[in-house]
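name: query_chain
kind: protein
chains: 1
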Amino acid sequence: MTKPTGTQATGTQATGSDDGAAGAETHPRPFTLAVDIGGTGLKASVLDATGSMVADRVKVATTYPMPPDGLVSKLCALVAPLPDAERASVGFPGMVRTGHVLSAPHFVTVGGPGTDVDSDLERAWSRFDLATALTDAFGIPTRVANDADIQGAAAVSGHGLELVVTLGTGFGSSLFYEGQLLPHLEIAHQPFRKGQTYDDQVGEAARKEVGDERWAKRVSKALANMRELCFFDRCYVGGGNARRLKRDDLPEDVTVIDNTAGILGGIKLWEGAHVGVTEPEAAGS
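structure:
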């Protein structure tokens, strides 16, 4: 992997020391650089062929405004301390199809979620080829998908229709049938209740405003809607705020998953065919 030169990202939690590089030699290849782009934080690690972490996760805060070139530069600095990898998987908080960004609700704002939208940022992000930009910047083949899609890939069992919901800055979702990722749906921006969207009602800003108890009731209603929408066989709930739910209050077919799935799902993006992640001829090869 081509690593950028310059100052290391401030706030990273791992430095990619020589000891870490030596330890990486005992892990089976190929190595996958797994990146999780969030509305409040950028995280990355390297996974071996079994999905085990080769190095400790590194993390920096997401800053705003965040144009495409700014994100690419920040990610290059973030991953610089990590061991070399042969390929990369990147989770992005928006609609992505064959590596192109179709929506970037956080990154078109001047100061992050809840702030004004900037028309110049909207134009910059519209259909931006993030996969190619990161392939060039990292120096390795890179696949990009919605962040909830990647988190879900690490959680699902591969049996039946499985729904994954992520609760963090906003409301993320992904669907899998028999382990195959299905085309992404931006449910987060659809009407939910009281004239507001799922993001508006169960995102982090709403949780802070109404408190955990009322927020959890909203989440339960959202999950009930998802059940009626797709008749899932099992639902997994992840993201940074999933830990705030009382597991005893959840139905038996709803499971809370660890937030590290956003990183660990990276290897799954390179396994099998996933609709909308690669070009059709590549997905079927």
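note: The first helix runs from residue 18 to 24.
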